[in-house]
Write a structure and sequence with these properties.
The protein is built from ten helices and twelve strands. The chain is α/β, with parallel strands linked by helices. The protein folds into two domains: 108 residues, Nucleotidyltransferase, domain 5, CATH 3.30.420.40; 176 residues, Nucleotidyltransferase, domain 5 (2-Layer Sandwich). The protein binds zinc ion (ZN).
């Protein structure tokens, strides 16, 4: 029987990554391209089509070898493949699923990128054995995914699992979404950066100032890791507070869903997980509601940058 291949595409605000995989999630080729500024839907469709061609070419395959394509988008996607809202891309209101299908002439399914990241982890990564699992992906913002009874929960409009925008501090700092006191506004990377800059302005000394001079004007996750390794008091204190807020969110997640597993991932966790995880666990263990008999494992994601692409393959190949 002829091999069936699937493509998984991760459309991000700065880059578009793609993989070609067999039906079991074995990656056979991969590719990356940058997302053009002010990319139109037509441009995105063309880039995805070109990436697919290169992925297939690299293995001497052509379009008829491709069974289906899955695409992760950073936004709210309705069940028909129409993009309701993408804050970082100009794709709101576009039925990208339909446009891709027309251009590629192959079955194409779209999903929210963080949801697909969780599907990837459920299929092949840290969440393989969990029937009920919640993920928190802490990057620039905070995304989340919910799987209950082995089923991804997307809500009525595809907008469920916005745990990053759960308000956990009344009258707290302003969030990117317009509300105040969201988890993301307290513990996302942009919030951590805002807090560090506020203290630098007040005259606090930190190794971050030197790292910024040399390499970049934004406080990347790897700078946070370097500052932790150097025992920088300011970064240690601010990350400790952020980790406690994530822990508080996990307490509520547990009360709402009673999951077997809470999975932590994303750039900040990949860089600083060793520091963040024990604080989150300690905060959750202090919750007096659950008797000791019930456990909820909290662990780090395993698939890193591949999670979304593999989740897209899982969706395209009908694993979930
Ligand atoms: Zn918010």
């Amino acid at each position: 029987m002829k091999n069936k291949y699937y493509a998984g595409i991760d459309v991000g605000g700065t880059k578009i990554a793609g993989i070609l995989s067999n039906g079991k999630g074995k990656i056979i080729s991969r590719i990356k391209s940058s997302t053009p500024k002010d990319a139109t839907p037509e441009k995105i469709v063309r880039i995805i089509s070109d990436l697919l061609e290169e992925l297939l070419d690299a293995k001497g395959l052509d379009k008829k070898d491709l069974s289906a394509v899955g695409v992760g988008i950073p936004g709210i996607i309705d069940p028909e493949g129409k993009i309701i809202r993408t804050p970082n891309l100009h794709l709101s209101g576009v039925n990208l699923g339909k446009q891709l299908k027309k251009k590629l002439k192959v079955s194409c399914r779209l999903g929210n990128d963080v949801n697909l990241g969780l599907l990837g982890e459920k299929w092949l990564g840290a969440a393989k054995r969990a029937r009920n699992v919640i993920s928190l992906f802490i990057g620039t913002g905070i995304g989340a995914g919910i799987i209950l009874d082995n089923k991804l929960i997307c809500g009525t409009h595809g907008a469920a699992a916005e745990i990053g925008h759960m308000v956990i501090q009344e009258n707290g700092p302003k969030c990117s979404c317009g509300n105040s006191g969201c988890l993301e506004a307290l513990a996302g990377r942009w919030a951590i950066e805002r807090n560090i800059r506020k203290e630098i302005k007040k005259g606090r000394k930190t190794i971050i100032t030197k790292l910024l001079d040399k390499k970049s004007d934004s406080i990347k996750s790897r700078f946070l890791r370097k500052a932790l390794q150097a025992h920088d008091p300011l970064v240690t204190q601010i990350l400790e507070t952020a980790a406690k807020q994530i822990g508080i969110a996990c307490v509520s997640i547990r009360h709402i869903f009673d999951p077997q597993l809470i999975l932590l991932g994303g750039g900040v966790v990949e860089a600083c997980g060793d520091f963040i995880l024990p604080i989150v666990k300690k905060t959750v263990q202090k919750d007096s509601f659950f008797p000791g008999a019930f456990t909820c494992e909290i662990t780090l994601s395993e698939l890193g940058d591949d999670a979304v692409c593999l989740g897209a393959v899982a969706l395209a190949s009908g694993h979930f």
